[in-house]
């Protein structure tokens, strides 16, 4: 064993040189190689390319943010609700102005008219108006061809036909009358000896609407009224009053009693204050009355 650990001078020098070489190689590995490696792996960054890449990143971010925001689809501004208006950025006052305008049966037919009604700012109008969608007949009105022009000028008394001589067939020409109502009108008129006193008696035709009566009186009027002797309301007895249309015994009694309390009527309008007086028939009743 001793022979294995006993070295000559040459062997010791060799071992020393070997250890020194190992130390030098280790130093080169730890200190020299990393420096040369960093130099070889150094990255050169282009500022132009970096800015270009940053712009692409920012653009992608904007696209993502826009996709997360609620989308606005085309809509008719006439039907904006409270929620819809608030989401568009309108104030409560602006929304209320639009609703008040629509309650009048009116329609907004242009962007300019929308701003006039709501009084929204120019900036808000510019932001939301691209989404306005009006009906085609508003945005693309069809040209009028061969339009029929109606003469809406009311007929004069002379131009109208006499309601007391009109036939059922003539009355049927009025829109809304028809065979049924024309027969009822003629039947009521013939129930009086001499016909109607005035146009207002058409109100006694059961089921005849006021707008239809107005159409009838646009074409017809009583030109030959039935002659009657009017009753003085301040002298009339109950027996006289019950002969008048729409006045029964109880109402006649109330009229006489009220006359006593009032010391006579000053005007026929005071009859409306009598208990159970048919106010809706006042215009017909007063045809038969006078006052002194």
UniProtKB/TrEMBL annotation:
One CC-aspect GO term: type II protein secretion system complex
Keywords: Membrane, Transmembrane, Transmembrane helix
GO biological process: protein secretion by the type II secretion system
Transmembrane regions: 12-32
Name of the protein in its database record: Helix-hairpin-helix domain-containing protein
Source domain of life: Bacteria
């Amino acid at each position: 064993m001793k022979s294995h650990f006993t070295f000559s001078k040459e062997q010791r020098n060799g071992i020393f040189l070997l250890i020194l070489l190992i130390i030098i190689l280790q130093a080169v590995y730890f200190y020299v190689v990393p420096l040369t490696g960093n130099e070889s792996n150094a990255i050169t960054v282009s500022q132009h390319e970096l800015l270009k890449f940053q712009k692409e990143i920012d653009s992608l971010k904007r696209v993502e943010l826009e996709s997360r925001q609620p989308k606005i689809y085309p809509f008719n501004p006439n039907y904006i609700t409270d929620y819809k208006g608030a989401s568009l950025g309108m104030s409560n006052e602006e929304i209320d102005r639009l609703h008040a305008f629509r309650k009048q049966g009116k329609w907004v037919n242009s962007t300019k008219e929308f701003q006039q009604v709501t009084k929204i700012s120019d900036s808000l109008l510019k932001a939301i108006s691209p989404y306005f969608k009006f009906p085609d007949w508003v945005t693309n009105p069809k040209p009028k061809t061969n339009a029929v022009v109606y003469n809406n000028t009311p007929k004069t008394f002379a131009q109208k036909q006499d309601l007391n001589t009109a036939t059922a067939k003539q009355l049927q020409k009025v829109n809304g009358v028809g065979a049924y109502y024309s027969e009822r009108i003629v039947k009521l008129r013939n129930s009086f000896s001499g016909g109607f006193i005035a146009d207002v008696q058409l109100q006694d035709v059961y089921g005849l609407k006021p707008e239809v009566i107005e159409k009838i009186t646009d074409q017809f009027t009583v030109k030959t009224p039935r002659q009657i002797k009017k009753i003085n309301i301040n002298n009339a007895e109950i027996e006289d009053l019950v002969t008048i249309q729409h006045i029964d015994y109880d109402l006649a009694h109330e009229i006489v009693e009220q006359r006593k309390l009032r010391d006579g009527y000053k005007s026929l309008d005071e009859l409306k204050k009598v208990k159970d007086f048919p106010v809706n028939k006042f215009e017909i009743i007063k045809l038969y009355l006078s006052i002194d």
